[in-house]
Design goal:
By secondary structure, the chain is of the alpha+beta class. Helices cover 30% and strands 22% of the residues. The chain has seven helices and nine strands, in the order E-H-H-H-H-E-E-E-H-H-H-E-E-E-E-E. Helix 1 crosses helix 4 and helix 3 runs antiparallel to helix 4. The protein is globular, with a radius of gyration of 20 Å.
Length: 246
């Protein structure tokens, strides 16, 4: 007989990063290229802190020391990868994982201690916009002859549900459309525990998270351009990185 399954939905993920790798990237990336690279790791909630670390790196670099920021980024990167590995039943991206600093309140012995925690965003509905709405919302790529836009025809194979929905909502088969995800309140996100460590030239992280089945293929929604924006801004969009509570 096979062994009994693990009796808990909790899973552990772990990752290790070479700090020198991130130091080399920081040395070669500047200005927009550094921000573009950073946007592949950090989401809008984390963005203000990343920018402050990038500024700190420039100051340390001129002083002949640059390892501390590379250590910080390597630790955050390892934590995100550990969180992704701990969620075996979801297709998590780094943008779904936020490394935040919170005060410990549940543990009496360590109450008031500040430590990193992980916030996991739930699956959200895709938000569809036409060019006029995308321009009104300040989305990146609108002014570039719609090079960043998709269309129902282009999405037919990679995202058939969105393609069908867009056509049913009135989009023409080759009409440019812009996709974002519905904005998520922090109260709707789930905490996961994380431990980040550094030893010599390496950063490691271990994540303990609840790994449960969650419906991800959610019904899209159309933003008509009226009222407040519905979407979570991507890097380059207006409003990206305006949150500061991390």
């Amino acid at each position: 007989m096979p062994p009994k399954p693990f009796p808990s939905p909790f899973r552990v993920g772990t990752d290790i990063c070479d700090i020198a790798r991130f130091n080399n990237i920081l040395r070669s990336a500047t200005g927009d290229s550094l921000q573009k690279w950073g946007s592949k790791i950090f989401n809008g909630l984390e963005w203000p802190l990343f920018l402050s670390k990038a500024e700190q790196y420039q100051l340390e670099r001129y002083g002949g020391q640059s390892a501390s920021v590379a250590r910080w980024i390597a630790g955050r990167f390892a934590a995100k990868e550990a969180a992704i590995k701990a969620h075996t039943k979801r297709r998590l991206l780094r943008s779904h994982v936020s490394i935040v600093v919170r005060s410990v309140e549940s543990d009496v012995e360590h109450r008031g201690t500040v430590k990193p925690m992980i916030l996991i965003s739930p699956p959200t509905r895709p938000v569809i916009m036409n060019t006029l709405t995308a321009a009104k919302r300040g989305l990146k790529g609108v002014a570039s002859e719609n090079k960043k836009a998709a269309s129902p025809r282009a999405l037919a194979k990679v995202a058939p549900k969105i393609s069908t929905f867009a056509q049913e909502a009135g989009f023409q088969i080759d009409e440019p459309l812009f996709l974002r995800q519905l904005s998520v309140k922090e109260a709707d996100k789930r905490l996961a525990d994380v431990s980040i460590s550094h030893d010599g030239g390496y950063a490691t992280a271990v994540c303990l998270a609840l790994d449960e089945e969650i419906e991800e293929d959610l019904e899209p929604i159309v933003d008509s351009g009226d009222g407040d924006p519905l979407h979570e801004p991507n890097w380059g969009d207006r409003g990206f990185g305006e949150a500061t509570d991390i």
